[in-house]
Amino acid sequence: MAIVLQSSPLLWTRLAAMVFSCVAFSVAVHGARLYHGTGDWCIFCWAFSFAGTLLVLLVELFGLQTRAPVSWKNFPITFACYAALLCLSASIIFPLYFLKGSGGQSEVRDYRIVATVFSCLATIAYISEVSMSKARPGEVAGYMATAPGLLKVCETFVACIIFVFVSDPVLYDRHDALKYCMSVYCICFILSAAIILLCIGECTGCLPFPFARFLSAYALLAVVLYLSATIIWPIFNFDPKNGGSKQRPYNCSSAVGVCTWDKCLTVAVLTGVNFILYLVDLIYSTRLVFVSA
Length: 293
Hints:
- By secondary structure, the protein is an all-alpha fold.
- About 70% of the residues lie in helices and about 0% in strands.
- The chain is flat.
């Protein structure tokens, strides 16, 4: 089997991202003394990013793109975008839980600082890879290399973070309106994830309707649903008339991790973020329909 090695900025960026993520999780496992589920999440982010990048490099090194069971126009940039978001989340969460206000042994703290630094470097490397791989104006590329495709990745990632915050403890079982918001998050996440899988599997041509029009219709539906959730979630969590609380409880300042009120606020902010992402997605998808027509 022939080995294809073509030096390029993209290749060196992927190598740098792989090395940085490898160093981050290796140092964290070796001496950072991670003691709860947050540390496991950070380890997963770095290890997953490292393993996926290694896979991409091996496939391209041995020229196996045409034999891969996925669309190679869509898979590498999709993975790089997820890796960038994962490493970014680890770069924020890890120092908050393991560096903020930590005393203890200086050696353990040094390991944690090194892991944080390399996590930030991995994030920068993956963002650079996405920037290099995304479609340029007039360039023929896979859907996931375009702005709407990258937005789908961000939308599903934000939805996953929302699921984490609303699940422990369960924040949506107090009122039917909050259950409606949860259904909005689930429906939009499932449809966005399905679109990503269809593009990676090159199955968009199997749909019984034009893919571009489906994207535009779905983006419009998602904007309407998320707009309603953006309004409803704060009303039933922070309005005293609906059983909510405007004031942040005093015990939130001393609580370990994130308290329930802060989680509700975070979900409200993330809901607004996803509404904006879907709105931008709608604008791009509508332009795509008109250009295709």
